[in-house]
Amino acid sequence: MFERIREKLEILADAAKYDVSCSSSGSNRKNHNKGIGDAEGTGICHTYTEDGRCVSLLKILLTNHCIYDCAFCVSRRSNDIKRAAFTVDEVVELTMNFYRRNYIEGLFLSSGIFKDGDYTMERLLRIVKKLRVDEKFNGYIHLKTIPGASPELLHEAGLYADRMSINLEMPTEVGLKLLAPEKSHEDVKKPLDQIQKSIVQYKDEKALIKSTPKFVPAGQSTQMVIGATPESDKRSCIPLMLSTKIFL
Ligand code: SF4
Q1: Does the C-beta of 112 come closer than 6 Å to ligand 1?
Q2: Alpha-carbon distance 212 to 115, whole Å?
């Protein structure tokens, strides 16, 4: 059992390392000389909270199975790689165990798409809800949202996550159609807009009614692939705080 979880962790933490929304991704220094440390090690990364603190996160995918075939992504369905998926309970237990051992201060959770947006988003929601409600976990949670998931699921997830994000992927629709033909900017713009409006609404309500719950208090982010097509990020249709994947 433990070996199986370890194998899943190796596969799904490795697959998550390509997401650069943490501040420690991107180094390739290996431990060649049996010394201490390994900057390429995956599974734990860092990010900044709402009040500017740097915290360490367990960074994993729920699954690297995916029905989409985005050319820039290691989890694309046509890629011949080892696949794995955690259960909802496995992610909750891993997070709590790592937190209790003081390895991490939070969770960064993303996922490939199992069979559709709602099916996958519903599992991500169950994880964050279980952590917050059953485990009373108050650590930081960054949740990636799934393209095509319904507004109701996104809204409920926003009540448990500290930060949410959904990737714009490419600066223009033309570039997106070239490398990720199954995606559209509309599918990303709608949830970005929905979350943004809810953040503002909940903040305004909280100013009047103290008991209003928090909604995505650390804000939302998105990211784009730059360099895989000739387009520039200056032409992006959405002016937002962006983290950027750079392929040179
Ligand atoms: S939908 Fe996401 S996980 Fe799936 S292939 Fe595209 S970028 Fe990768």
Answers
A1: yes
A2: 35
